[in-house]
Design brief:
Number of strands: 0
Helix content: over 70%
Order of helices and strands: HHHHHHHHHHHHH
Distance between the termini: 13 Å
Largest sheet: none
Radius of gyration: 19 Å
Shape: globular
Structural class: mainly alpha
């Protein structure tokens, strides 16, 4: 750590990443008005791949990944991107967009048991943060009015938590990986892996699925999530990770689910309920505690 002042551009990039990623949740909800979940996920991944290739070519950094980086290219492409895109779309069908963003953002909480499973030391603060996050998830699901007989709602919550789990698996691998290139250099190839996996999955799982190419909702969601939020948001996030102290960037990104909730109120008219507010606060507090504990140990 140095005493050099943090450039203003770094704060602007952090704000851009928070807004770009937060707006993806109402954008996904809008997109589902014009497409089935996995087909929409595949189109998002394909658009992201094309945009990422164009971005890296414009930066003069487009290159074939180093052989030792391919395992993480495959794990991120297969778990953090393809699985997350598909599961998030499946979940958000029946769960409000704001709540969906919080549930899927529980990847950091999943890191606590995963770290224990791989033999890493986990402090009592991280365990407490994980427990607080679980309480937040329970409150967030509004158990007093939760309809356990509604299969779509039950599975919607399960899909979103599973999305967070697959993201955590990729995070665990990425954290333990020694890069020869950079995460940004790998982005177009990871998006290509996701596209290659999602297209056959969509054909198998949704043989009667659809993409309504004549509706603005489809193009708004795919262009925003695929061409803007994915590549540009990732570029901003990677830049933030380099320019800001790790704890500042990690805690700052907790603004993503908050932007998701606020933008869902504006764009898809979702109300802010008491369970949503309290549950979100508990989940974010739990994640923050886990981040602080991990930072102490690195």
């Amino acid at each position: 750590m140095t005493d050099q002042p943090i450039p203003r551009a770094a704060w602007l990039q952090l704000a851009a990443a928070i807004v770009l990623f937060g707006l993806t949740w109402p954008a996904m909800k809008i997109g589902l008005m014009a497409g089935s979940p996995i087909w929409l996920a595949a189109s998002r991944a394909g658009m992201s791949a094309l945009t990422a290739f164009a971005l890296m070519a414009a930066l003069g950094r487009l290159a074939w990944p180093h052989r030792s980086d391919w395992p993480v290219v495959l794990s991120v492409g297969g778990l953090q991107l393809s699985c997350f895109f598909a599961l998030a779309n499946l979940g958000i069908q029946s769960v409000p967009a704001g709540r969906s963003g919080v549930l899927a953002y529980t990847a950091i909480l999943w890191m606590v048991p995963l770290s224990l499973l791989v033999g890493e030391r986990v402090g009592w603060r991280a365990l407490a943060g994980g427990a607080l996050g679980i309480v937040g998830i329970v409150v967030l699901s509004d158990p007093w009015r939760f309809d356990w007989r509604n299969h779509r709602i039950v599975m919607g919550h399960a899909w979103l938590l599973l999305a967070g789990f697959t993201w955590a698996l990729a995070m665990l691998h990425t954290r333990r990986h020694r890069w020869r290139g950079t995460p940004l250099d790998a982005l177009p190839w990871q998006m290509t892996v996701a596209t290659a996996l999602l297209l056959p999955l969509a054909a198998i799982a949704e043989p009667h699925g659809h993409l309504d190419l004549d509706r603005w909702e489809f193009w708004a969601a795919v262009i925003y999530n695929g061409a803007l939020a994915g590549p540009a948001g990732t570029w901003a996030a990677v830049s933030v990770a380099r320019a800001l102290p790790p704890i500042t960037g990690a805690l700052g990104m907790l603004g993503v689910p908050l932007v998701g909730i606020a933008s869902s109120v504006v764009l898809v008219n979702e109300p802010i309920t008491v369970p949503l507010a309290i549950g979100t606060a508990l989940v974010i507090a739990g994640i923050a505690i886990v981040i602080l504990d991990r930072t102490r140990r690195t």
